Each structure stands twice: as C-alpha cells, then as structure tokens.
Amino acid sequence: MDSVLAASGNASWMLISASLVLLMTPALALFYGGMSSRRSVMNIMMMSFGSLGVIAVVYILWGWSMSYGTQSLGGVVANPFEMFGLRDQIWDESGNYIEGASGYSNVIDIGFQLTFAVISTALISGALAERVKFSTWLVFSGAWATLVYFPLAHMVWGGGLLSHAENSISAWIFGTEGGEAIVAPIDFAGGTVVHISAGTAALVLAIVIGKRASFPKHVSRPHNLPFTMLGAALLWFGWFGFNGGSAFAADGLAGLAWLNTTAAAAAAMLGWMLIETLRDKAATSLGAASGVVAGLVTITPAAGALTPMTSLILGFIGGILGCYGVGLKYKFGYDDSLDVVAVHLVAGLWGTVGVAFFAREGGVFTDDYAYGFKLLVVQIIIAVVAMVFSGAITYLIAIALQKTLGWRIDKEAEANGVDLDQHRETAYDVAGTNNFAHAGASMERNGQAPVIPSRTDIKE
Fold first, then answer.
1. In the 8-state DSSP scheme, what is residue 395?
2. Where does the sequence pass through the membrane (predicted)?
3. Rounded distance between C-alpha atoms, residue 263 and residue 313, angstroms
C-alpha cells in the first residue's frame, strides 16, 4: 500500500512539474517580449509559441525515440524509428499503462521531457529579435531539436557519451566500477543539454545571420519592463518544476532542488544588481530580472549536488558573470539582441563547471572525487563537447537555411517593424497600424495588393 501511495504521489508531482515547465515557454515569451521594441514584441512572442507547436509535434513523432531509445548509435543518438510516434511506449499488450523507470506511468516522463525540448529551443530566439523570417525560424526549430537537442539528451540522460554509463567519455578516461564511470558527470537538470547548447546556438546564429541595421549605435530599448519582470517571475515559478521535477519523485531531493534553486536565483539577482550599482550607479529592473534568470540557469546542472549555502555562492558568481557577459557582444561585435549568450551560455558554463568546486560529498551524483580534480576535468569535458556539438550542427543548419529559405527580412521591413511584416499585426494600435494590417489582409483575400504603411506612417 505504501509503495502504491508513493508512486501516486510521485506521479502527481511529475505531472505538476511538467505543467510548470510547459508554463516556462509562455513565460519566456513575456520575458523576451518586454525586452523587445514595440514593433517586434509580437514576433518574438510568436517565436516562443511557434517553437511550442513545432517541438511538441516532432517530440511525439521521433524526439522521445532519439533521446531515450535503446538502439543507440555510437552513444550519440538513438534510432528515431524504434519508438516512432511513441509506439509501444504508453500501453502494453494487455492495454495497461507501461511503468517507467521511476515507478509511475512512462507516459508521464514522456510529457515531462517534451516540455524541456520546447523551452530549450525557444530560448535561442532571443538572439534573433527584430530581423528574421518567422517561417525560417519554425523550420530551424524542428531541425535544431532533431539534430542537436535530441542527440544531446541521449548523450547526457539517455546513457550516451556524456553520461555515467560504461561507454561514456568519463568512463574511457577514468575507468569504470560496477558497470558505470568512476567519476560521474553532473548535469542534474540540463546545464549542457539545455543552456550551453541553446546559448551556443544563439551565438552561432547571431554571427551567421548578422546584425540589425541599427546595431550597435542605436539599440532598441525594452518597450515594457513590467512584462519582463512578470516573465522572469513566471520563469522562476516554472523552474521549480524544471529542477524539482528532475528528482523524478516527491522526495527530499526534490525539496533540496527547490531550495537550492531559490537560493541561487536570489543570490544571482543581488550579484547582478551589485555590478550595476558599482558600474552604473543604479540597480535596474531589467538587471534584477536578468539576474534571476542567470541564477536559475547557473543552478540547473547543480541543483541536486549542492547545499543551500554553496548554492548561494554559485548563484552569486553566476549573476556577476552574466552581467559582465552582456558586454561581450559589444566587444566582439555580434548582435545577440536579448542577451541569450550572457544569460544562458556564460551562466550555463559556470554552473556546469562550477559544480565541481562545490559538490557535496555523498550527494546524489557525487562520490569520493566530489572535491577533486577529476570531477572538474569531467565537467569541463561535457561542457566543451556540448558547445562544439551544438555550435557545429547549428552552423550547418543555419547556412543551409540561409541558402534556401533565407533568414533576413528586407531592410524596409526591418525599419517598419518585423511584427507588421511577418504577422500583419502589431501589439499596440498606435496611429491605426492594426487597421493597416487588417485592411491589408482583407485586400489580399480579395486578390488585391496589400497596403503596408511606411515608417513615416507609424508614429512612435
């Protein structure tokens, strides 16, 4: 009876966690939307919602199979056809729900992992604000998830090259014991799979696609900071499912992940605002919101391996590094519109590598090497492999799409606003801009050329 109640409680927690992580994608839309200009807010929000639509479909078709299938292809990815369309993954031959590895129905785990794939892809969109075709973004979303995210999920969580399995890189370097690597890499909830991979992809795309016409002399200011703060708050809320759910049970580990997540986010927010105050003489709401997200990113790989005290340290440093990371785009000249590289790549790298300094001995993934050089080596290796893999594949996808569908909207459309060009609507009906959009759509339906207002027709 106790085991039945435990399984039921764990199933409930995982369904709640999956719902929380799903909420993170609309929350990201708010976070990015507030940071964008008034003429691009709907486009950047649509990119998040578009990713949700595309990735949910491809995950059911082949994403689960590629991530967690048993037919591994060299430890890099699993056979996409083995479980295509979730074949034989929900019910057994008798019609009963198949029990997953954690003791509750396998279909719950599938839903939970689907939400991770969605948010990971949507994160990348922030680097491309105000200048890319929506249709190309949708194609990229499906291609990137298929060729980058699903293989990385298999490598880290599916028993592949970056896991603790006996065929992993860690096992090759430091040996095995009992069929597993002696020094097991730590990625509790997705430092490599989610944040390093998405941050690297954002950097590559920003370079390949190029700068906005106004960058860096005239950068659009955030048009609605309350949106951004609300988005950050909802991301923080959803992150309890992201990290707490990665315990796969309603137990003490989930509670530890919850507390560590809160500690790191709070400390990172203070760290970010401290740098702003020392450098700019003012702490900003945008800095506070960005600091929260940087802290959440930092603690993601380490949430089950630290104490609340060490989470404060890890998060505080993550906030500082994220704040300084924003300046990299001006130093090196790439146009990462909404600072995906600083918040996700920089903070994600620190969280993945920094856990080696603070992992508590006897923690869920740690062993006698918790404070040793060997764990540090392993963490650096998984971070570098994730960066190289994501960067190389993203580059190939980006170039292929550039030469076929094309990435950029034209210069006039960029000046008038990507919302109007790509969606025939605007967030705010200023000077009748939405009237232009609806009139244009109506004329197109009647076979007439649509009327698109020029930049001089739309008053700021």
1. H
2. 12-32, 44-64, 110-129, 136-157, 188-209, 256-275, 282-303, 309-328, 340-359, 371-401
3. 9
The distance of Cα 409 from the centroid of its chain, to the nearest Å, equals 25
- Tokens representing 139? 């194609």
Tell the residue number behind the tokens 């199979």, with chain if given: 65
Distances (CA, A) of 389 to 42, 152, 200, 303, 349: 31, 8, 9, 24, 15
Measured CA to CA, the distance from residue 16 to residue 13 in angstroms comes to 5
Give 318-337 pLDDT, tens digit per residue.
999 999 999 999 999 999 99
Q: Which two tokens stand for residue 209?
A: 């696609």
The predicted model scores a pTM of: 0.92
Strands 77-78 and 72-73: antiparallel
CA 153 – CA 455 distance, rounded (Å): 45
Q: Which amino acid is at 209?
A: I
CA–CA distance, 334 with 205 (Å, rounded to integer)? 10
Q: Which fold has domain 2-403?
A: Ammonium transporter fold (1.10.3430)
pLDDT digits (tens, 9 = 90+) for 271-307: 999 999 999 999 999 999 999 999 999 999 999 999 9
Contacts of 286 (CB under 8 A, 6+ apart): 35, 222, 225, 228
Within 10 A of 444 (CB to CB), how many other CB atoms are there? 12
Six-digit token pair at 158?
């599916």
Sign of torsion, CA 141 144 146 148?
negative
CB atoms within 10 A of CB 79: 15
Reply yes or no on whether the pLDDT at 3 is more than 90. no
Map 281-303 to HEC letters. Answer: CCCCHHHHHHHHHHHHHHHHHHC
Other CB atoms within 10 Å distance of the CB of residue 184:
21
